[in-house]
Amino acid sequence: MSARPDPRALAPYDALLLVSFGGPEAPEEVMPFLRQVTGGRGIPDERLAEVGEHYFLFGGRSPINDQCRDLLAALRGELAGRGLDVPVYWGNRNTAPWLGDTMAEIAADGHRRVLAVTTSAYPSYSSCRQYRENLFDAWSGVRDAGTELQVDRVRHYAQHPGFVDANLAAVREAVARVDDEVPHLLFVTHSIPTAMADSAGPPPRSSTGSYVDWHRSVAREIAWQLRQESGDEHPFELVYCSRSGPPSQPWLEPDVNDRLEELAAEGVRSVVLAPIGFVSDHMEVIFDLDTEARETADRLGMRMERAATAGVHPAFVAGLVDLALERASVARAEPAAPSVVEGGSPGLVACPADCCPNLREPGRPTLCGAPASA
Ligand SMILES: CC1=C(CCC(=O)O)c2cc3nc(cc4[nH]c(cc5[nH]c(cc1n2)c(C)c5CCC(=O)O)c(CCC(=O)O)c4C)C(CCC(=O)O)=C3C
Ligand SMILES: [Fe+2]
């Protein structure tokens, strides 16, 4: 790190754009949000009503937008601390501030090259391409109004040391709260349909696809580093939460609650839940884990600690700025060695056409793709 920061180290980018999922902030926003998220995707009404109840339990307010506000403030602080003078904007896919409005604001403020960072760290249709489709829609709205922006995106960062270190610190703290034994580690992520998992990431794909592979890598790395530090060998595995869709459609398993039942039957008495699939405390974390899985663990008489999400952990925030600097080097065609955990995958700065396909609407245009190759 140089002593005198170069304020233009993020060139050619003149704006950063935090892209997130969005969530309701009041009871009357819950159902419109759910309809927006599931528009035309055949999620049964009972499931929508059920998920609505999760939000109403928390006064109709999802934590996700507040988490984004905190992350924005932390990113601005980190950038300023490094002497990097670049504005940071924020747009959501499913609620205000809408991505299309933010894109228009960026253009109106005179910016032309934008670097997007999503609050989603892994490859898959839901966690990657769908954001790129929404970026395209937002971008094309601005283009139709007369401004051509160029938008790039920071690569998937789950295997970046910043994200891994933040999660490692959280697991370490949760393990320390279980003072009497070596707890079983359950790394948790959002379940997705197996068809989506199988086609996640760029071809050629492993039999499990990039979504599962990446989560396993992160879980393995955290468990390994923990063992290096403490000598304790925690049993660990990947489990899933927040399944939706019709029961006939296979989704990734096991569900965290089902696995807790099995572990209790095997005599496991304490578990740490590490939500590595979520960048911050989303509804999936505060309901599916802190409420539902907590009830399951209590009923089974198991000790359960939930590790914190990356949130605004300094390692994570610094890592996102490092990733932006790295992407800027790539954009300037300068050599940039991608920072990644040992033996890990750095992921792609631009996804090929057949990466994380949209199985429902294959032709839908995206932004931040790689030019078609021979
Ligand atoms: C992989 C993945 C992530 C992680 C990557 C990322 O972060 O983007 C994620 C994040 C999120 N998912 C969220 C909320 C919802 N997801 C739903 C539905 C679905 N998610 C899916 C996948 C994912 N989702 C899928 C395959 C569906 C089925 C329908 C479809 O194919 O679209 C539904 C509909 C109801 C239901 O079916 O549960 C809701 C309300 C929120 C907001 C939480 C908050 O408010 O705090 C966040 C951050
Ligand atoms: Fe979701």
Automatic annotation (TrEMBL):
Please name the pathway. Porphyrin-containing compound metabolism; protoheme biosynthesis
This protein's name: Coproporphyrin III ferrochelatase
What residues does Fe-coproporphyrin III bind to? 62, 131
Subcellular location(s) per record:
Cytoplasm
Report the EC code(s) recorded for this entry: 4.99.1.9
Q: Which UniProt keywords apply?
A: Cytoplasm, Heme biosynthesis, Iron, Lyase, Metal-binding, Porphyrin biosynthesis
Q: Which residues does UniProt assign to the signal peptide?
A: none
* Pfam families, alphabetized: Ferrochelatase
One term under GO cellular component: cytoplasm
Q: Which GO terms describe its molecular function?
A: ferrochelatase activity; metal ion binding
Q: Which residues bind Fe(2+)?
A: 190, 284
- What taxonomic lineage is listed for the species of origin? Bacteria, Bacillati, Actinomycetota, Actinomycetes, Propionibacteriales
Q: Which GO terms describe its biological process?
A: heme biosynthetic process
